[in-house]
Amino acid sequence: MILIIATLHENEMAHIIGKGLLQERLIACYNLAPIESAYWWKQEILEEHETVVIMKSTEEKFKAIEAYFMQHSGYEVPELIAIKPYQVNAPYLKWVEEETRKEV
Length: 104
What we know:
CATH architecture: 2-Layer Sandwich
Structural class: alpha+beta
Number of domains: 1
Strand content: 35-45%
Number of strands: 4
Mean pLDDT: 95
């Protein structure tokens, strides 16, 4: 199992992408939270209100999730960071694996 952290400009877009990834069975679930971000972009510091998305999936799905974000996020360089948890309770891990294994 992996956690994938991403940011998007709009909460509405985060819901659209999250639901699309769920429908494709690329993720088992997602969480959204509003955040304030500051970052370098094209020689200047930008400050933005964004939505952070935390997705639960499997390592095998990362490339497909990345491709989906490249196509739908609206970002030239989308943030996608995969983190492998040190421990996950067995029933939850089984659920994530089952939900991302099912056919569309």
